[in-house]
Amino acid sequence: MNTDTIAAIATPPGQGAIALLRVSGPEARAIGEAVFSRPLGPPRFQTYGTVRAADGSVIDEVLLTWFSAPHSYTGEDVIEIACHGGLLVTRQVLDRLLTAGARAAEPGEFSQRAFLNGKMDLTQAEAVMDLISAQTDLALRAAHEQLAGRLGGALARLREELIGIVAHVEAYIDFPEEDIEPETGAAIIDRIESVRAAVDRLIATADQGRILREGVRTVICGAPNVGKSSLLNVLLGFDRAIVSDTAGTTRDTIEEVINLRGIPLRLVDTAGVRESDDAIEREGIARTRAQIATAELILEVVDAHAARSSDGDIAADLPDRALHLRLLNKIDLGEHPDWSGVDGVRLSCASRQGVDDLIDTVFSRLGGPGARWGADLVAINARHQRCLARAAVDLAAAADRLREGVSPEFAALELRSALDAIGEVIGKTDVEEILGEIFSRFCIGK
Question: N or C: which terminal CB in the chain sees fewer CB atoms within 10 Å?
Answer without folding.
Answer: C
